């Protein structure tokens, strides 16, 4: 049985660690280029077997009984909680996911889209020609404010300054490079204490809101209300807290990453932004898009698909294997930490022509030679029972936000070589700097009129 490749000498370990210190994609590319599609790296509890490419995805994702989340995402337990979807499997996971599902289906998608576009409009209203701003940061903030309301309701959304400051303290540690983060979570230093204290402050407010609602406080249509609703399995306060906190952490950052990279890719390739605007003009006029409208924006949707391919929000997906298995001639022991990579898969020559090129037309089914990717070749939202619960919201919100920005803004990209950062979401380190131009004079209709349109489209 051949020995599993990987960094072993001090020099090799140093180079691999330095690559991961730069960014998660650079670390993965270093292992792939130096050791192939199967490698092992790390020490003690962080020792990980990396299985890269579509065949590895199929092995791991189509065998959920052997490759489990439990024990694979322990780094997130202090934040997400012991009952969060990302750290559980089987019936408990499925029961909690079913309970939360109404927030992420049909009417929930329509209301989420309306609220996010309203937050986007408020942000754009404050921009002025000649102003330079970090477009990723601006969009992330708009999403965060909207998602606080979507998940926590009006009462907690009114405490946004306090909650956002605490969320920033949590992300300060979560955005450390992977080697530094793994060490920081295990040492009782200031970064860990600060993040744990911030988690406690956020959950105190959420627990107080849950108690208020249980004792007769008015309910709403947010995620807390959905989790408290009668029918189906009853949820404990801890389960509701874990669902809401993990939805906040795993909501605005991946979506903010995705829309930031979509803007970057659109602005950095000639004619793409202008075509998005022309399509929005033809289909929407001045109005913001509804989920039903998104189906009539094929070019914008293709831009989003291609941007998610090149810059998937999630770069790496770990699992813990219960039983030993073989892959490409190598025996992986039972209990091993195993990781597949969306980022490496989405840039694999095995699955994609010109994998590093931004080509939205590859998603056009009418194009000669078009081949739709398999679920193992394109998986920005995951696969199977653990597929992202917010995939439906993201599928509507991302094209709608991109179209709205093109309707309302003229932007010039100033960041030409963004560096990767962020864990778990892939974010542009240092932001994406743009200069605001003269507005196109479109898209001034109030976004709140979308509510009636959405209701009609879903009836």
Task: Provide a compact summary of the structure.
By secondary structure, the protein is an alpha+beta fold.
Structure in words:
This protein is of the alpha+beta class and 459 residues long. The chain is built from 19 helices and twelve strands. It has helices at 10-22, 24-35, 54-61, 77-80, 90-100, 107-125, 135-152, 154-157, 160-174, 178-186, 190-214, 223-228, 237-267, 272-284, 291-294, 298-310, 342-346, 391-408, 450-458; strands at residues 38-41, 48-51, 67-68, 132-134, 317-321, 325-327, 330-332, 337-340, 411-413, 419-421, 427-429, 433-436. The chain is globular and about 65 Å long. The N and C termini lie far apart (60 Å). Residues 449-459 have low confidence and may be disordered.
Strand order, largest beta sheet: 1-2-8-5-3
Number of strands: 12
Shape: globular
Strand content: 5-15%
Give the proportion of residues in helices.
40-55%
The whole-number mean of residue pLDDT values reads 91
**Low-pLDDT ranges:** 449-459
- The chain-level structural class is alpha+beta
Main sheet overview: 5 strands, mixed
**Gyration radius from CA atoms, angstroms:** 22 Å
C-alpha end-to-end distance: 60 Å
Number of helices: 19
């Amino acid at each position: 049985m051949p020995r599993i490749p990987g960094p072993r000498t001090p020099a090799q370990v140093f180079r691999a660690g330095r690559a991961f210190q730069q960014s998660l994609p650079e670390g993965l590319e270093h292992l792939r280029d130096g050791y192939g599609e199967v490698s092992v790296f790390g020490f003690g509890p962080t020792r990980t077997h990396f299985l890269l490419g579509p065949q590895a995805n199929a092995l791991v994702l189509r065998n959920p009984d052997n490759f489990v989340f439990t024990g694979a995402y322990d780094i997130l337990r202090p934040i997400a909680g012991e009952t969060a979807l990302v750290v559980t499997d089987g019936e408990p996971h499925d029961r909690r996911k079913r309970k939360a599902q109404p927030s992420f289906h049909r009417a929930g998608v329509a209301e989420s889209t309306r609220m996010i576009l309203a937050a986007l409009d408020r942000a754009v209203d404050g921009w002025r020609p000649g102003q330079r701003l970090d477009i990723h940061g601006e969009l992330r903030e708009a999403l965060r404010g909207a998602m606080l309301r979507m998940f926590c309701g009006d009462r907690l959304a009114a405490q946004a300054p306090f909650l956002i400051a605490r969320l920033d303290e949590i992300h300060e540690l979560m955005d450390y490079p992977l080697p530094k983060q793994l060490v920081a979570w295990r040492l009782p230093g200031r970064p860990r204490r600060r993040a744990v204290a911030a988690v406690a402050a956020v959950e105190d407010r959420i627990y107080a809101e849950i108690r208020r609602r249980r004792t007769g406080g008015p309910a709403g249509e947010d995620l807390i209300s959905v989790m408290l609703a009668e029918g189906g399995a009853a949820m404990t306060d801890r389960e509701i807290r874990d669902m809401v906190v993990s939805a906040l952490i795993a909501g605005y950052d991946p979506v903010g990453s995705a829309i930031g990279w979509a803007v970057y890719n659109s602005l950095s390739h000639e004619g793409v932004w202008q075509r998005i605007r022309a399509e929005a003009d033809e289909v929407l006029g001045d109005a913001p898009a509804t989920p039903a409208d998104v189906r009539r924006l094929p070019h914008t949707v293709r831009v989003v698909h291609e941007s998610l391919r090149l810059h998937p929000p999630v770069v790496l997906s770990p699992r813990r294997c219960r039983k030993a298995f073989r892959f490409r001639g190598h025996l992986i022991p039972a209990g091993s930490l195993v990781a597949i990579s969306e980022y490496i898969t989405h840039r694999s020559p095995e699955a994609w022509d010109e994998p590093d090129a931004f080509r939205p037309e590859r998603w056009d089914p009418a194009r000669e030679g078009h081949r739709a990717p398999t679920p193992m070749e394109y998986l920005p939202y995951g696969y199977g029972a653990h597929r992202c619960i917010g995939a439906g919201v993201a599928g509507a919100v991302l094209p709608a936000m991109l179209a709205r920005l093109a309707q309302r803004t003229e932007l010039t990209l100033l960041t030409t070589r963004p560096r990767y950062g962020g864990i778990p979401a892939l974010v542009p380190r240092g932001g994406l700097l743009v200069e605001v131009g003269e507005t196109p004079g479109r898209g001034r209709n109030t976004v709140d009129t979308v509510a009636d349109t959405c209701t009609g489209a879903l009836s």
